[in-house]
Fold this protein.
Amino acid sequence: MTGRGERTPQMSVKEFEEIAVAAPETVTLEFIGGRLEVKKGADGDRGTVLCRLRRHCLQVAPELDLYQGRGLRVEERREGRARPDAVLAPRGHFVGHGQWAEPAGVLMVVEVTANDSDTDRLDRHEKPTAYGQSGIPVYLLIDRDSCTVTVHSGPDRQVGGYRDLHVAKFGEKVCLPGPVGFELDTEILGNYVR
């Protein structure tokens, strides 16, 4: 640990990026809180949730795209590297960006919980901190373990995380605040819980 309760990073960002570039396409790597993370691939149910969300976004906001697998520079000093399950941004936003893009202009990131032991630590604690520090306006967590959707908004760049949380059970309609600004019906999500 360092003086402010932070962990000593396992490696530098440069070392992580070299490893990530060399990793096979079947492996997704992230660098959150100074730690190398191996992200579990999407199972069929998780992938279907993302497809349904993408289709909904295209219907209600055709000027936006929901990108899957997009790498972002996150955390306070942009020393983290995350690959959210999905990133909502204006259509064409990432043209000309490399493998890891700055979060400026991103409207929302989405994570869908996987059935693994790291879900609690990563999706519910470390990623909201990293995304909030990055200034990403909305973090949507589709939590298949608790059958809830959590909308994080009002990013807190200094402390990390978000000032506003709204939790809804699958089946409820959820308002995604600005700059997203549309409603999401979560009724169908209960079909993708294992």
Remarks:
- The longest strand covers residues 148-155.
- The domain at 42-192 is CATH 3.90.1570.10 (tt1808, chain A).
- Residues 44-60 form the longest helix (17 residues).
- The helical segments are 13-22, 44-60, 119-133.
